[in-house]
Amino acid sequence: MRFQQLLQMRRYASATLRRSVTATTPTPATTTTTTTVRTMAGSGAAIPELTQITDNVQRGNYAELNDKDVAHFEKLLGKNHVLTEDLEGYNICFLKRIRGNSKLVLKPGNTEEVAAILRHCNERKLAVVPQGGNTGLVGGSVPICDEIVLSLQRLNKVLSVDEVTGIAVVESGCILENFDQRAREVGLTVPLDLGAKASCHIGGNVSTNAGGVRVVRYGNLHGSVLGVEAVLANGQVLDLMSNFKKDNTGYHMKHLFIGSEGTLGVITKLSMLCPHTSKSVNVAFIGLNSFDDVLKTFVSAKRNLGEILSSCELIDERALNTALEQFKFLNAPISGYPFYMLIETSGSNGDHDEEKINQFIGDGMEKGEILDGTVTGDPGKVQEIWKIREMVPLGLIEKSFCFKYDISLPLRDFYSIVDVMRERCGPLATVVCGYGHLGDSNLHLNVSCEEFNDAIYKKVEPFVYEYTSKLKGSISAEHGIGFLKKDYLHYSKDPVAINWMRDMKKMLDPNGILNPYKVLN
Ligand code: FAD
Ligand code: MLT
Ligand code: ZN
Asked: Which of 141, 215, 443 to probe ligand 1 with, by most ligand atoms within 8 A of CB?
């Protein structure tokens, strides 16, 4: 038998995938799902010092919150939706790296309330940070000083899902997993999937232009989001909703809000094009000897799997081993290889898809590029394999401090930075590893150490940005700039472009109340 080493080969038509979700939810009661939800990332990490102090941040020229403001908001939203106590979960970022000192969290229930809040804040010059699921990894979703947290948690409804057009309209605070569940009820799926799906909000995803594991198939959110409703800093509601793929009426302003990380407006609603759920899903988890073989296998996947290729992820040995050490419940089908790839196909004809993926693996094994692996169409096993990939980021922060990078690099130079960084950090780092969205040229370089320390920080930054810039890569492929990368934006953006960003920010938010200290320095 040609694929003796493969452990499983089964075909399941009409497989309905329900991915197990692993993300931490840092804010209380944000999710109603049955998934593994912990209370705070990196249980080993201590509560950080206030970022304003550690990073010597000069507070902007904003007003101080007073009792009258609080009373105003209580009248507007009702007392239950105005929080002044137990705000830690809203003040600390997922990675426990950034900590603000907000004294107020507001939870509006509709667009009008968001508009009224911002109108008041703009008039009073009170700074605001929009917050979704608070799973962001660049410190964008938490206050830096004492900004008011505007939580979108209550805007959580899926307003419509149209089986015929494939268009869904959803409020921005809807948890991604819940949105996907609703879409699946009518045979559609949300074209975005990421490990934080049990906690992150679709509005947070759009605001960060989140990537995830299916960009190779569906492209990014600039393509899938058809329209947005956003509230500007002055409280004006900008209706850019559209239910059509094609709409060339004037400037395509919705794109300004996709990926602007809450600095230009607060997204309250959006429409999204959702593809039909695939009838047949197969996942292969394979072991390879070298990065050269990884590249050959990727080319082969594109060539031979073609239109059914729906994900192509890379995990290196250290990343996998760290996850396996931390989470004993994970079941790795193979071990002992320097590189692993997770390749997924999604199609509409089980026989055809199975034949294709088996052929692809058989060819790879014959050439000696694929050494071992497992392939499965069993929904439970598919889920188990995805769980391994999803736990990788959590493994690295479970007991350590982790410097995380999400960079775009040319594929030929994709992995070299991991080896270079390992050499640079030497024994200062406990783990230096790479994984990520190979199919999109997006590497997650991670450097773990016992706790944050300046010596290793200096080894890693700005080196990683210089290295990326020299290769004409991007210093942020998907997580955004937030607070952590704002001083490094120039490594990936031309000064003229940065000035245009500043001008746009001034035009849409002249008082600078929306998410200050983020993206632009
Ligand atoms: P938050 O973290 O709350 O906010 C992120 C930014 O968006 C902030 O600047 C905030 O101010 C702004 N914002 C939030 N909501 C709104 C709104 N309604 N209007 C305006 N601004 C808003 N990211 C990826 O891209 N790909 C991945 O594969 C991926 N995997 C992850 C896996 C794990 C385990 C974790 C913890 C994170 C992962 N992330 C990934 C990062 C994170 O989940 C994404 O950036 C996600 O899109 C953030 O959504 P959120 O609702 O948590 O937003
Ligand atoms: C991922 O792809 O797992 C996420 O972007 C999170 C990370 O970078 O660790
Ligand atoms: Zn990622």
From this structure: 141
How far apart are the C-alpha atoms of 386 and 374, rounded to whole Å? Answer: 13
C-alpha triplet 217, 344, 160: angle, nearest 5°: 50
Domains, the chain, in order of start with CATH, read: 2-26+278-470 (3.30.70.2190), 35-151 (3.30.43.10), 158-273 (3.30.465.10)
Minimum-distance ligand 2 atom for the alpha carbon of 437 = 2
CB 460 within 8 A of CB 449: no
CA proximity to 516, closest of 240, 230, 102, 222: 102
Residues 6+ apart with CB under 8 A from 351: 11
Tell me the ligand closest to 440's alpha carbon: 3
Instruction: Ligand 1 pocket test: pick from 105, 142, 201, 207 the residue with the most ligand atoms within 8 Å of its Cβ.
Output: 207
The model's pLDDT over 30-60, given as tens digits with 9 standing for 90+, comes to 223 323 222 334 445 678 999 999 999 999 9
Residues contacting ligand 2 via CB (< 6 Å)? 195, 393, 404, 406, 436, 444
Ligand 1 within 6 A of 134 CB?
A: yes
Contact 486, 520 (CB under 8 A): yes
Q: What length does the chain have?
A: 521
Per-residue pLDDT tens over the stretch 144-184: 999 999 999 999 999 999 999 999 999 999 999 999 999 99
Please give the model's pTM, rounded to 2 decimal places: 0.93
Please write the tens of the pLDDT for every residue from 322-356.
999 999 999 999 999 999 999 999 999 999 999 99
Report the alpha-carbon distance of residue 342 to residue 388 in Å, rounded: 10
User: Three-state SS for 246?
Assistant: coil
Q: How far is the CA of 503 from the centre of ligand 1 (A)?
A: 25
Which DSSP symbol is given to 29?
Answer: T
